[in-house]
Amino acid sequence: MKRLRNFRTGGLAIAGAPDRPSEEARNAYLPAIATVPLRQHLGPTARCVVRAGDRVEEGQVIGRAEGRGSADVHSPVPGVVRRVSQVRLAGGLECEAVEIALSGAFTRLGKPKRLSPWRSMPRHEIVRTIRERGLVRASDGKPLADALSVFEDEGPCELIVVTAVTGEPKNPIEALTLSRRREAVIEGFEMLCRVLSPLSAFAVFDVEDLELAGSWDGAKGAEGPPIQVFTLPRRYPQHLPGQLGAALAEAKLTTEATRTFFIEPTLLAEVYDAVAEGKPSLERCVLVAGGAVKIPSVLKVRIGTSIGALFEECGGFKTPPQRVVMNGALDGLACADLDIPVTKTTGMVLALTAEETRTRPERACIRCGACVDACPEGLDPMRLYKLYGSRRFSLMPSEGLDDCTLCGACAYACPSRIPLAQSFSIARTRSPEGSR
Ligand code: SF4
Ligand code: SF4
Fold this sequence. Notes:
436 residues; alpha/beta; Rossmann fold; six-stranded mixed sheet; five-stranded parallel sheet; 13 helices; 20 strands; binds iron/sulfur cluster
């Protein structure tokens, strides 16, 4: 097991050992009404294939993928469609959603699992199954089947990297999956090896998770190469593929040309569930935390459950939150209300106190350069913000706007509390080239 030195430029040191809920995820209450967005992925909204009054089964397709970047959407509960409405998601995007009133018997929950003989499946059938089950990458919402097919179109994969590091050091979900669902992760990994035929496989862990990392070094399934484990000193945002790739290249383990596929352990377990057990994407493990939450917990939640219901299940708030965000304190999406539903890309919801959000009035830039030092992409956030402030959006791509991962490190480092990353996110929608 080798220790990597980390990425070369920028980032934020995150001190302290993890203070994580360590118990297994507990099942959240089923939602009486599940509000299921038809856009839980990167691409176009899925086409609604049900109407008000229809009875649906658990796992039935209610939205059909509309082309590349889109994914099928399944009913997370059995019930009756109340209506098809508009729903607001974290970050402010609105989309069509199917409201399902829970009733009737579950077809999967609590029933014995029937395993399919996946080892006799050819690779294209594994990819087809992954597509039909609607799996998407939580990090960016890209359908997993689309991400896999890139290697069909553009050449073979050389390396699979299992990303056991997380952006949020308190998030225990990947570590819990690796320790509690080891067999499912290994079989999911084998399935991907069948599809991608990589020459080698790495897993990268937070150096604080040394014991867990050691237990995975050399892990091997019946198919695919053994997994070589590396550890990284904790530095935000090491979980992003760009930074992980830079750390591996710095250690001369890869080059810029190495064709690498990055995947989180939770998604490997989902691949196993989808291919071996035929389970569509119906639920998520969600960390419910933040200084305003009474009892931080990890919950197994049906998609379509409101985030308000999750906070209630964690004892409610001990103090009114200053800000509620989804998927990260630094780079998460703001939640305007508590009716926002859990989707396939929800990994955590945080109710943050004023102290945690470090809210102070915005002041003028003092040209200290802290944002430049913090940027892991080597950008000049100060210069980008100047262009944003003068509404010269079309000049921002040439200053690297499209390389910005919206990680939020610059804004966190800024002593003047200028909302740098937030501004860059808005600029992306305004500049002609900015598409992400
Ligand atoms: S949000 Fe963009 S500009 Fe700011 S640190 Fe991250 S990559 Fe750099
Ligand atoms: S960190 Fe803030 S105050 Fe300092 S240069 Fe960057 S934008 Fe200006």
